[in-house]
TrEMBL record:
A GO MF term: gibberellin 3-beta-dioxygenase activity
SUPFAM superfamilies: Clavaminate synthase-like (SSF51197)
EC number per UniProt: 1.14.11.15
UniProt KW Transcription keyword: no
Name by which UniProt lists this protein: gibberellin 3beta-dioxygenase
Alphabetical UniProt keywords: Dioxygenase, Iron, Metal-binding, Oxidoreductase
GO BP annotations listed: gibberellin biosynthetic process
Amino acid sequence: MKSISEAYKDHPINLHNIIPIDFKKVHELPDSHTWPSLGQDSISDTSHDQVIPIIDIEDPNIVKLIGHACETWGAFQITNHGISISFLDEVESQSRNLFTQPSQQKLKALRTPDSVGGYGRPRMQPFFPKFLWQEGFTVVDQSATVDQTSKIWPNGDHTPFCHVMEEHQKKSKDLANRLLGLMLDSLEITKDDLRITLLGSSSSPEDLKSEAPHTALQLNSYPACPDPNKAMGLASHTDTSLFTILYQSSRSRGLQIKVDGFGWVTVPPVPGAFVVNIGDLLDILTNGRFPSAVHRAIVNQSHHRISIGYFYGPPCNSKIAPIPKLVDSNHPIRYRDMTWREYIGIKAKHFEKSLSFAAVNPEIRTNAQS
């Protein structure tokens, strides 16, 4: 499998679940986007804002801090990471520029039913009876992105957008590689241990270097909503990645993470910081030591919120299984072996129950999640 995008071709979604509404023409929340069951589950900003750790990457105790955050919360905010605020402002500006284009222009870059890249609603949409108050643009392949955005912006006006997103991917990849090393160090796991699990015992350290990680950049737009208490930006989910590095606009809040003992906790934007949340693949590889973060995005009435997520995954042909050093009598194996492609198939069918279907004993996993 040359690209993880090929795996999604086996799981196409209906076109009506891809095409967003024209938010500029909506002045009242339509029934199609009204979530009547949100009353008991909704939450406004809470006093638990600071429960998600904020970690300086240059802290002398960085390994211990990241390990504790990953095990306890499944997420943290990282600062002093070397990517300037001025550059992140430009990334947000270019993203906002894309989403403020006329609907008919954005639809020229519409994602096809069996693909990942391009404009449209999130792939989770078919699992819900009501539509999400969100539109997105996914960057997977740079050449495809150039082709898609040239249809949105004619006359070469797409060039600044493509240049900034390509640069952001490069910077995010460097940061992700550094974070992965710190996470492994906290578990006393080496990159060789990871390589042997992902690529097999016959692989060499050079194989891990030559087999590029699979990554994707997800731009999210949450327009101001007429009735935010009855709408949902992104519904509760976990990410199909090792981990995600998210930049959220400082103009408004919206990201919430579900934390045991607290419920839904708002993650306030910290200027220049990234939110890092653990994904399903790292949950499996760490045998549940680093649980994937359940999260969602709520919307507001006055601000157009933008977020940019960088999904960091292993090489496309990786085997996904618990790293043997993290399995012992006190930590019995929780997940079975599978390929990444197989897990994408599980996620496409079972969504929020995917980790239970990947578990050796689904009943144990389900009880642990509840």
